[in-house]
């Protein structure tokens, strides 16, 4: 797999995102995946609010979350079936504003993919929208896929055999989040100004339509289910 982060100009609110991308990446090969920082989608769709104070930000975090728990560092939230910090609301590289994830982010991603397919004249094209996330008991941020399109985000290896012939019974490979993390390592988290990353020769299955909720996992089967239940979180975001 080959990853190339793309240095760009600053992207502004309501700017034409497909045109911006093609300006910096005139063409791609069949079978390419493009990683796009979620900030670009927020700005593209005008999900930007001038920051006023901490109370205002807290109100938006609660509004954007299915469930929220305040911690010593930030709000631990669940949004669209994902555990994330502050419901994805971001102040970094926002120039004094709050950037919110678009409410229809999968639809935005599908639309963006279709426009890029037309402009680049390619069929097999994947998009993954990246945002910073934190793993439990691990230092530092990684990235996760807050949306993706054009490829299967999960690879099911149940029924396959390991090196010694033992059948894999529970192994699902999280393709989308793995790609997001790999791309974000090249894109950076600070002043790099590389919100795009071209990923080539990735081991993915390209599809025109991603199955609904493909990457979401039922809480009753989740490894962290006891922790969720201990703090009163249920799958519908209601307190027990």
Describe the protein:
- There is one protein chain.
- The chain is of the alpha+beta class and 240 residues long.
- It folds into two domains: 156 residues, 2-Layer Sandwich (60s Ribosomal Protein L30, Chain: A), CATH 3.30.1330.100; 53 residues, no CATH class.
- Helices cover 25% and strands 25% of the residues.
- Strands 1-12-2-8-9 form a five-stranded mixed β-sheet. A three-stranded antiparallel β-sheet has the order 4-5-6, with helices on one face. Strands 3-7 form a two-stranded antiparallel sheet.
- Helix 1 packs across helix 4.
- It is globular, with a radius of gyration of 18 Å.
- The mean pLDDT is 92.
N- and C-termini, Cα separation: 45 Å
Structural domain count: 2
Order of strands across the main sheet: 1-12-2-8-9
Q: What proportion strand?
A: 25-35%
Outline type: globular
Low-confidence stretches: none
Give the averaged pLDDT, no decimals. Answer: 92
CATH class of the largest domain: Alpha Beta
- Secondary-structure element series: EHEHEHEEEEHEEEEHEH
What's the number of helices? 6
Q: Could you name the CATH homologous superfamily of the largest domain?
A: CofE-like
């Amino acid at each position: 797999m080959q990853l190339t982060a793309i240095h760009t100009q600053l992207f502004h609110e309501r700017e034409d995102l497909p045109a911006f991308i093609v300006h910096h990446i005139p063409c791609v090969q069949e079978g390419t995946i493009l990683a796009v920082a979620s900030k670009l989608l927020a700005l593209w769709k005008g999900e930007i609010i001038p920051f006023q104070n901490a109370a205002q930000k807290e109100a938006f975090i609660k509004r954007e979350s299915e469930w929220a728990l305040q911690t010593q560092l930030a709000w631990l939230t669940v949004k669209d079936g994902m555990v994330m910090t502050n419901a994805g609301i971001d102040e970094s590289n926002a120039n004094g504003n709050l950037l919110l994830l678009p409410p229809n982010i999968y639809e935005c991603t599908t639309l963006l993919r279709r426009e890029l397919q037309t402009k680049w004249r390619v069929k097999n094209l994947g998009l993954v929208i990246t945002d910073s996330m934190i793993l439990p008991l691990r230092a530092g941020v990684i990235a996760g896929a807050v949306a993706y399109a054009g490829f299967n985000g999960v690879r099911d290896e149940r029924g396959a055999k390991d090196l010694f012939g033992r059948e894999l019974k529970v192994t699902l490979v999280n393709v989308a989040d793995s790609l997001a993390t790999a791309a974000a390592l090249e894109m950076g988290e600070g002043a790099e100004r590389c919100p795009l990353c071209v990923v080539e020769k990735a081991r993915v299955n390209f599809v025109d339509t991603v199955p609904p909720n493909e990457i979401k996992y039922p809480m009753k089967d989740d490894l962290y289910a006891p922790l969720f239940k201990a703090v009163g979180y249920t799958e519908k975001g209601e307190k027990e």
